[in-house]
Amino acid sequence: MTLAVAEERGGLEIHSTVLRKIVEHAADQVPGTLRHERRLAGIDLGIGEAGASARITTGTGDPPSVDVRLELTLQYPGPVRSVVAAVREKVGDELVRITGHRVRSMTVTVEGLRPARPIPARLH
């Protein structure tokens, strides 16, 4: 039994939802990024936490490329520029490692800065 050459066996398409989840997970692994409570119109919904949020647009080419729009909450105080640089590197590395896709462009928006732990209320 002989196997057909790779080009004759078909292709592999990775859905943008999978790419988005890889990007969000990779971003959440970088020290200095924070998960935050889920909110709607500024109101805590009480249904858990959310981390990085991404939108992915897939491109063409070999290797395939993606454009990433990423929204993060970061720890305060902290080095915003170096954390964002680490996020960019981690996301790019993970996409290539797991899917073979490369990041063509990445826009990072820091949605909030929060203390790593809640600040206790002060009693007067």
TrEMBL record:
InterPro entries documented for this protein: Asp23 (IPR005531)
A Pfam cross-reference name: Asp23
Similarity annotation: Belongs to the asp23 family.
Protein name: Alkaline shock family protein YloU
Organism name: Pseudonocardia zijingensis
